[in-house]
Amino acid sequence: MTIFESIRDDHETQRTLINIIIGTEGESDGRSEVWPRLKRELEAHAAAEERYFYVPLMEHDLTQDAARHSVAEHKELDDFVEQLEGYDMSGPKWLPTAQELCHRLLHHLDEEEKEVFPVAGKALADDEKETLATDYEADMERRRNGDV
Ligand SMILES: [Fe+2]
Ligand SMILES: [Fe+2]
Q1: 110 pLDDT band (50/70/90 cuts)?
Q2: Residues with Cβ within 5 Å of ion ligand 2?
Q3: I want to staple 101 with a disulfide (CB 3.0 to 4.6 A). Which of 4, 80, 92, 121 is the partner?
């Protein structure tokens, strides 16, 4: 397992959850059950990905700018999550804001996979790609369990 495979797996989870959410109506079971799961997943992933992917990438000239860009996007995504948290789930602003979050999230995930991964593949050593995967997954496990 490499860090790329670990991250890609979690991106797939996020894609599934956000697609369920934007297909929901009002404060349905789907929306109220799936939204907290996505929120937890996004927070855990951004934190673990920054620590075990972007921090190492910032040490390389080749990937420093891309790493900074992605971390800045995490902040933007987080602002959308906070905005949604402030809205009534059955109110008129919730779904359009969730759709905007979906649009930006899918863009972010695609950009990481298509633009960051190829250069990161050159910057990181092969053994580091595996060590980072192990550390990333252990960190995700702790965060998903609420231990962090
Ligand atoms: Fe990210
Ligand atoms: Fe990611």
Answers
A1: very high
A2: 49, 112
A3: 80
